[in-house]
Design goal:
349 residues, single chain, ABC transporter involved in vitamin B12 uptake, BtuC, mainly alpha
């Protein structure tokens, strides 16, 4: 019986397809693409800065040079924000889809983004001078929203599609609270439109340091526990028979997903759909083994977010649109495609 279960696990995660050399090649290729994307992001903008000028400006470190100031205080923070946000949202999406066994699950779909956004706005309204409290509040809000959706679905015996509907309901309720706060305190979020749409303009290194630390720590923990995520995907009964503490592990992963999404939202605003699109694209390359899927999704998510940000900067140049709009144009049709794909939202057979 256990032998059959192990064979099922091997088939499910497509281990035979993905040899070690294949996985290394994919990760190396994506790493090269990420480096190219980073260089393009630093170089391209309202004013194009050649690579040679980037290198010479950074080596000289002269703050009086205009190109150095642009690179140091605008392009590098924005690029790093795109990399961290792409990684955080993508890994959060992988975790949610895996532990909930739902192909439609993502931070934006099940209400995690909304919860983080609400708490961030509350901090902006009542503690406007606190910089680091925004990050803490964001992932606390994400945790509350994720647990609320899971609790509703669990208590009502909801199906996988029911989890999505619960997320929509929670997001709608949280959205009403956000609108109320912004109506009563219109100065709570200075760039309220940009925050609600999501983007990277105006990001500083001070905003990134604290949030980036949480993103890195959460990713490392998720990677260490990635084999447990594989076992959890076999189903609750099978996981328990193999000695896994299902409730504790699922709770841990939900917390990690919320920390990742909430930390990213603290400096990007309510950026959506990265956590929905990238996990599915990553599975096309490396299958379902989360030990490989997590780093591949982190790399691919960073690349994808960088490219979307470049499109947002250059598509209507010299005007710039928030990157959240670009992601919505891509994510909306993809979500509809998943709805028509079948399997009632089930990720694993």
């Amino acid at each position: 019986m256990i032998s059959n279960k192990k064979e099922s696990q091997d088939n499910r995660f497509k281990m035979a397809k993905n040899s070690k050399s294949y996985n290394v090649t994919v990760i190396a290729f994506l790493t090269v693409l990420l480096i190219i994307g980073i260089l393009m992001s630093i170089s391209i903008g309202s004013s194009k800065i050649p690579l040679s000028e980037i290198i010479s400006s950074m080596m000289q470190g002269d703050a009086s040079i205009n190109s150095y100031k642009i690179i140091r205080y605008v392009r590098i923070p924005r690029t790093l924000a795109a990399v961290l946000a792409g990684c955080a949202f993508s890994v959060s999406g992988v975790i949610l889809q895996s532990v909930l066994n739902n192909s439609l699950a993502s931070p934006s779909v099940i209400g995690v983004n909304s919860g983080a956004g609400l708490f961030a706005i509350l901090v902006a309204a009542f503690f406007p001078a606190s910089l680091y409290l925004t990050t803490i509040a964001s992932f606390l809000g994400a945790i509350v929203a994720a647990l609320l959706v899971y609790l509703i679905a669990h208590k009502t015996g909801a199906s996988r599609m029911g989890i999505i509907l619960s997320g929509v309901a929670v997001s709608s309720f949280i959205g009403a609270i956000i609108d109320t706060v912004l109506t009563l305190k219109p100065d709570a979020v200075i760039a309220r439109t940009a925050f609600m749409i999501g983007g990277f303009s105006g990001v500083t290194m001070d905003k990134l340091r604290f949030a980036g630390l949480f993103i890195v720590i959460a990713f490392v923990i998720a990677f260490i526990l990635s084999y447990d995520m594989n076992i959890l995907a076999l189903g609750d009964e099978t996981s328990k028979s193999l000695g896994l503490k299902v409730s504790q592990i699922r709770f841990t992963f939900l917390i990690l997903a919320a920390v990742l999404a909430g930390s990213a939202i603290s400096f990007t605003g309510l950026l959506g759909f990265v956590g929905l699109i990238i996990p599915h694209l990553s599975r096309l390359f490396v299958g379902y083994d989360n030990r490989i899927l997590l780093p591949v999704s982190a790399l691919l998510g960073s690349i994808f977010t960088l490219l979307c940000d470049l499109l947002a900067r250059t598509l209507f140049a010299p005007y710039e649109i928030p990157v959240g709009i670009v992601l919505s144009f891509l994510g909306g049709p993809f979500f509809i495609y998943l709805l028509f794909k079948g399997k009632r939202g089930q990720l694993y057979d």
